[in-house]
Amino acid sequence: MDTHIADDKLAELHVEELVVKANDRNVERYDIDPVAEKKLLRKLDWRVVPVLWFLYMLAFLDRTNIGTSMRSPFARNAKIQGLTKDLKMTGNDYNIALMIFFP
């Protein structure tokens, strides 16, 4: 039992020492130019947003192909096309799969 108390005291000392070391660091603070920051954010927006939009649209098309029936003979509902038979779905399996795709 004494070793457990001694271990706790050592752990407390170690934690206190870590806190002191973390506070003693000489960390320089950088002043960011607001114009350069806006320029960087604009550049990131022009590169990241179109990629995210494209991925969102692909996910949307995939979900609508599975979830809804369309009037086009080439894009029909997955359930009508035989998805439930191919995947051996029974009961509410198809509805559960739709709930996953359409949160």
TrEMBL record:
InterPro entries xref list: MFS_trans_sf (IPR036259)
Major localization listed first in the record, in broad terms: membrane
Subcellular location, record wording: Membrane
One GO CC annotation: membrane
Annotated keywords: Membrane, Transmembrane, Transmembrane helix, Transport
Name this protein carries in UniProt: Major facilitator superfamily (MFS) profile domain-containing protein
Membrane-topology annotation of the record: Multi-pass membrane protein
